[in-house]
Amino acid sequence: MNLFDIDPGLIEALRAADSVAVLTGAGISAESKIPTFREAMTGLWAKYDPTELATPQAFARDPKLVWDWYQWRRDLVADAEPNPGHRALAQMEKLFDEFLLITQNVDSLHQRAGSTKLVELHGNIARTKCSQDGRVVASWPETDQTPPPCPHCGALLRPDVVWFGESLPGHALTGAMKAASNCDVFFSVGTSAVVEPAASLIYYAMNNRAVTVEVNPNPTAQANMVTYALAGPSGEVLPQLLAALEAAR
Ligand code: OAD
After folding, report:
1. How far apart are CA 69 and CA 87, in angstroms?
2. 123 has which bridge partners?
3. Residue 46 in this model has a pLDDT that exceeds 90
4. Active site residue: 86, 110, 122, 152, which one?
5. How close is the Cα of 221 to the center of ligand 1, in Å?
6. Closest Cα to atom 11, ligand 1: which residue?
């Protein structure tokens, strides 16, 4: 049964497309039970605002709190499985000459679903780095200290993710801007589209006269400027879109 009307114009645009870019945010992992950033957390972490924990200021003020929060998220991610939305995007990369998945997520669920053509704009929660010089650290001696000290210099270790106010990895951002600027179709999936510079990638696509598509059950401020706004959960919309595209090829 079709829950969403996929406009034939969108299928036509995808059939004609050589190059597709897809931006994803926390919403694509919501159906894998990873809480998004802008919804209230439950349980132990209910009284904290995630957007205030993911900051250098929070880490400077209370490194143990921030480390413990990321440890909780790491455990959630380790127990999670990719959902049909992740899997549909892993299939989609095979259908186009050029394809780039640009994710703001740090949870590796796209990779676990089979995506290979992707850039991570905000790092990865599975990696740890030195808070002083940014060197990635694979392991450290067992310790009672939280966060553990860097085995090279003794500074505190931190997750290798981008916090508010920090720069994005240059190569990832350059790749994302290039893909958005050159694509024929641009998707914005499961993101509130408020955190820069990711939120502005769609304008690069629009400058290239790309067809733009939002997939989000709660239409964002960008919904009224995209070519197609698909107001449903990505775990349902994307597999349906993929099926319609495969049927039309
Ligand atoms: P947000 O938490 O801001 O937004 C999640 C979006 O997903 C919302 O617009 C929801 O409506 C939507 N959503 C919820 N369930 C969905 C579903 N089943 N299918 C599709 N969409 C769904 O997350 P991001 O936009 O990713 O950055 O946030 C951007 C960045 O802000 C994050 O990478 C993180 C955060 O603070 C840093 O940590 C630097």
Report:
1. 28
2. 161
3. no
4. 122
5. 13
6. 218
